[in-house]
Write a structure and sequence with these properties.
heterodimer; A: 459 residues; mainly alpha; two-stranded antiparallel sheet; globular; B: 110 residues; Helix Hairpins; elongated
């Protein structure tokens, strides 16, 4: 909770630093601030404090998801220094809005009252609408912003109506109040309660881009500024899934028979549609968008299993997925910085000759996303699938494994482009900050794969 | 006075509030799906939010529980922030393409 207060102060300070023209000090200040927040947040480990009349509840899950979000944000900020170098007009605004987005994400992983869930999602989304359109003169960015805005607020409407119906049935916004209500009235829950669950599911599915509520994803990912896409693809997924799981695990785990069949169908659709569409993409950002949809499908399996260990599964999976995605976007940004080329997969042609280091880190990231052993992605997938099998959904896991096999095809397309295709011969120089990010992400990916116990034992 | 209003509000059964809000909400959803003008879509979204607000107040009155009405303030604040950002985005689009018909926005595959 202290994390939220300090980050709010940091966000405001960032705006004022912009006013007084200390632009050089901006990035170091934010990075130090975020590191400090990680430290302070970690001190809340095992304390399990309820804040503000039980509005927020910082259990170990909230603390670990918060730390993951902050760590990913630090990586994004490391990339941002170079990215905003050419255009420093609204630097401080961009930075402070990113920080406010992080606050929204933290609220989403630590709420214990539906009001806080609503505020968190809105803080996150409204900030992202602005960030998606932050390239004001680019038509693609404008379009992405408008689409994200319209679809996002549409989803908010559903979420809100769902919250209202749950309140109407149970008379409380507190997660534990709703849980008690469900257990007491197990046999005779009113219709509006089920409709409420369904509408909340729709609202949350929009945010984490589950089929059939995924159609905005590819357009928004493609149109937004690449750095913002990297931020969106990682932080929103982490926060969205943590929020989804927290709500369903706390409140509805005793009435799974009413919504799990729907989730199963959605998961199957999401996996197939995401993977098959990704195969046909030539634009790297669009490919990553559809890959993010398919990963959302896998992660939905953890919510279907709905056990305590689902939290570990989601934590591991989002960690592996975020780190790999950040690597992919960092390499793309680096290539684009050199050439202003398009986002097509062909831009990776001959990367191995131009910069062996970048080709290598990109390969690790792609292997991790595809779920090949000794990378983080493999262990995360393994844990997730094992968790789902032990909950008794073997058929779903069979379909998921089949889908991972499809995934290998399009992730390897990138690796093949980097190693076996002829491209420009010009050497690529790499910015120090990017090098640092790539080293950190590569090490993190391998560590998650070789020593996953670091996370699983801790819980 | 307040008791009186609560009493009058309660003479109408809660189902009627639910039906009214559900109808308003559905009109909003249909508006978003059918209309092609960004401003109208935006208005339809507001209609959805306000349907939720109306139902929230009704539930809150019936249960004599203030939590629902406090939530309404949250919704108002959020809706206001959304309006500010949304109109800014629409103005930005209008500056670039001189129209707010979302069918013209086909640079990215929809």
């Amino acid at each position: 909770m202290k994390a939220i207060i300090i980050l709010s102060a940091l966000g405001l300070a960032t705006m004022f630093v912009g006013v007084y023209n200390f632009k050089k000090a901006l990035l170091p200040m934010i990075l130090l601030g975020l590191l400090a927040v990680i430290g302070i947040n970690t001190m809340e480990w095992n304390t399990n404090i309820h804040y503000y009349n039980d509005m927020l509840y910082f259990d170990n899950w909230a603390v670990s998801f918060t730390n993951l979000i902050l760590a990913v944000s630090i990586l994004v900020f490391l990339l941002s220094g170079q990215y905003f170098k050419k255009n420093t007009d609204h630097l401080e605004d961009n930075y402070s809005i990113i920080i406010f987005t992080i606050i929204g994400a933290i609220l989403m992983v630590s709420y214990s009252n539906l009001a806080m869930l609503f505020i968190g999602i809105e803080t996150l989304s409204i900030s992202l609408y602005i960030l998606a359109g932050s390239k004001k003169t680019s038509l693609a960015s404008n379009e992405a912003s408008l689409k994200y805005f319209l679809m996002g607020s549409f989803a908010t409407g559903f979420l809100l109506f769902g919250i209202v119906l749950l309140y109407g049935a149970s008379g409380t916004f507190h997660l534990h109040g709703i849980k008690d209500y469900v257990i007491e009235n197990h046999a005779s829950l009113p219709t509006i309660f089920y409709v409420g669950i369904l509408l909340m599911m729709v609202g949350l599915a929009f945010k984490i881009s589950i089929v059939p509520f995924h159609f905005w994803t590819a357009d928004v990912y493609e149109g937004s500024p690449t750095l913002i896409t990297a931020f969106m693809a990682t932080v929103v997924k982490i926060a969205g899934f943590a929020a989804f799981l927290r709500l369903f695990f706390t409140c509805f785990s005793s009435i799974t028979e009413h919504f799990v069949p729907i989730l199963c169908i959605l998961a199957v659709l999401t996996m197939f549609l995401g993977n098959i569409t990704a195969v046909y993409q030539n634009n790297f950002k669009r490919m990553l968008a559809f890959s993010s949809i398919s990963h959302a499908g896998y992660m939905l399996l953890a919510i279907i299993a709905l056990k305590e260990s689902s939290f570990i599964a989601i934590l591991l999976y989002t960690a592996a997925y975020s780190v790999a995605t950040i690597t992919a976007f960092a390499v793309l940004l680096m290539i684009k910085a050199a050439h202003q080329e398009n986002d097509s997969i062909d831009t990776f042609n001959g990367l191995a000759k131009r910069s062996p280091f970048m080709a290598f880190t990109l390969t690790i990231a792609m292997l991790s996303l595809a779920g090949i052993p000794i990378t983080g992605g493999f262990f995360a997938k393994y844990y997730l699938f094992a968790n789902t099998i032990s909950a008794g959904y073997t058929w779903l896991v069979v379909l998921a494994v089949f889908n991972s096999a499809i995934g290998v095809y399009y992730y390897f397309k990138v690796i093949i482009a980097a190693y076996f295709k002829e491209g420009s011969e010009e050497k690529l120089s790499i910015f120090p900050a990017y090098q640092l990010v790539l080293i950190i992400t590569a090490i993190a990916t391998l560590l998650l794969g070789i020593l996953p116990g670091l996370i699983t034992e801790m819980m | 006075m307040t008791d009186q209003i609560t009493h009058i509000a309660k003479t109408i059964p809660i189902e009627h509030y639910i039906y009214l809000s559900a109808i308003l909400f559905s009109i909003g959803v249909l508006g978003v799906l059918i209309r092609r003008n960004a401003i109208i879509i935006f208005m339809s979204i507001e209609l959805m939010l306000n349907a939720a607000t109306l139902l929230l107040t009704a539930f809150s009155t019936y249960r004599s529980d203030a939590a629902g009405q406090v939530f309404v303030f949250f919704i108002m604040v959020v809706a206001a922030a959304e309006v500010a950002v949304g109109l800014a985005i629409i103005v930005m689009i209008f500056r670039n393409i001189k129209s707010i018909d979302i069918n013209l926005l086909n640079k990215l595959k929809w």
